[in-house]
Design goal:
With 70 residues, the chain is an all-alpha fold. It contains 3 helices and no strands. The chain is elongated and about 45 Å long. The relative contact order is 0.14.
Length: 70
């Protein structure tokens, strides 16, 4: 999803062309007809959301501090 798109943009110096751009829009659900600033905001919002879900999943499966032995 959005993390893959952000990585692809990084690899391509923030410029995806043709079918790569269409695939990126499809993966993120970003509307390509919106102004670029709104597209960038939407990508950042989706990346933050993905990272938050990953952090929540890691926290849910990590042993609590009181169960860990020194």
């Amino acid at each position: 999803g959005p993390l893959v798109v952000a990585y692809e943009l990084r690899l391509h110096d923030a410029h995806l062309g043709g079918s790569d751009a269409q695939e990126a829009y499809a993966l993120t659900g970003i509307d390509p007809s919106r102004p670029h600033i709104e597209q960038g905001y939407a990508l950042l919002r989706e990346c933050v959301s993905s990272l938050t879900m990953i952090a929540d999943a890691i926290e849910a499966y990590s042993p609590s501090a009181e169960k860990q032995s020194p």
